[in-house]
Amino acid sequence: MMNAGFEFDNSYARELRGFYVPSKAAEVPQPRLLRLNCGLAVELGLDPGVLISSHGAAIFAGNETPEGASPLAQVYAGHQFGGFVPRLGDGRALLLGEVVDRSGRRRDIQLKGSGRTSFSRGGDGKATIGPVLREYLISEAMHALGIPTTRALAGVTTGERIFRGEELPGAVLTRVAASHIRVGTFQFFAARGEVEKVKQLADYSIARHYPELRDSESPYLGFLSAVRDAQAQLVARWMHAGFVHGVMNTDNMTISGETIDYGPCAFIDGYDPNAVFSSIDTLGRYAYDQQPLIARWNLGRLAETLLPLIDADMDRAIQLAGDAVNRFVDHYVAYWLGGMRAKLGLSDSEDDDLELANGFLAALEGQNADYTLAFRRLSEAVRGDDAPLRAVLDDASAYDLWADRWRARLSRERVSAEARADAMNQANPIYIPRNHKVEEALTAAVESRTLEPFENLLEVLENPFDEKEGLEAYASPAPASFGHYRTFCGT
Ligand code: AMP
Ligand code: MG
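A: This is the predicted complex of the input protein with adenosine monophosphate.
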């Protein structure tokens, strides 16, 4: 038999009995590979030559279980839109196991859309081609943007027709993650009063993600702080890129600090702090500018689960955990400002930089200004031409006032315009997954059965910072006819 090269070492299955249910993927009629991520396959020590064959398609569809895998569905709980659901779990996903990649990092290999598990409730456990390609595109784009994220190893169609209001081609995504441990995993056991299990999970998580804490004086408080920092950094990066996750429930917040669960997410075109795309987020709980606040709220939910481990004296535990959670704000602002300095071309730090960064955003507000292009064109302003930037604004007067302060600030740094502009172009992408381009690619795949627009878009998004001639269509905002973009869960 051909060997795809998976060398599984399944620590979750081995060390966390009672945290999952062993499961099997549903057999599907006709696995066919849509896309294999060859670079990632090599990174994982796999053989792309084998994976590209029908054998690979059978593995990624769940029809064949590679040797050494121990397929399981993980249990978790979670706050969904603020309401606690005590039992969620992998209802349409299956963890095949873990591999240690070429740089020594342990990675989960998970099938998403592989059929029912004990956590499926009323769902069919399946996925369809549109959402699978969408997650593939956006997660790989996020990775190329330098934002921590789960990855996409492969997408396959299954030959099934899946009912989602209409019949659609069934598909499975193979997702790779640092782990799939979520805030909600802790909540599941904490809500049941199973403190020993919470401790076991925390010890496992520390060993896997934050091993430097193992021998520290207060590892659990350290763990909470480490997750806080990872999340503060992550959300700061989302904000820099104009990314709206759309469903920041506690079951969609990893303790590794990777972005997970690309359901109703989208990137903003025009700068709008209140941007909401998800059709079910009617109150704007997960709006663009709410994301740091929600991350902090979610962290509070993690903190609650850890209290008995942090200190036997509950008052003291609450004090310590509360302080750790409250420091989220400072850490978030520091990461956000650090990234904004890079986007504005600042190398040094000055006290007024926060105001300067907010000033640029204020100048964009209400201007119909494309967020990504406005930042990108700052580098041309540095090179002496701010006409392209002014052109993305309805009225440039607020920008002009701000630009005087910005230029004065830049003049205090001894950096050449060229070097500064080049550095800025590594912080301000030219290509992001534009909503209309994503939709165009998915529509072509679903309705016209061609993957060409998907392949082309994916290729562009792999190099988001290097502007290339001929790719102008990928850099432009949606035409007005595209209208307000709405996204959906329930993939
Ligand atoms: P999500 O909105 O993707 O974070 O999923 C929330 C919960 O619903 C998780 O427990 C999922 O496993 C479950 N779920 C979502 N879609 C399906 C489906 N098609 N079949 C079964 N369970 C699902
Ligand atoms: Mg989820």
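The longest helix spans residues 219-241. Residues 346-425 form one domain.
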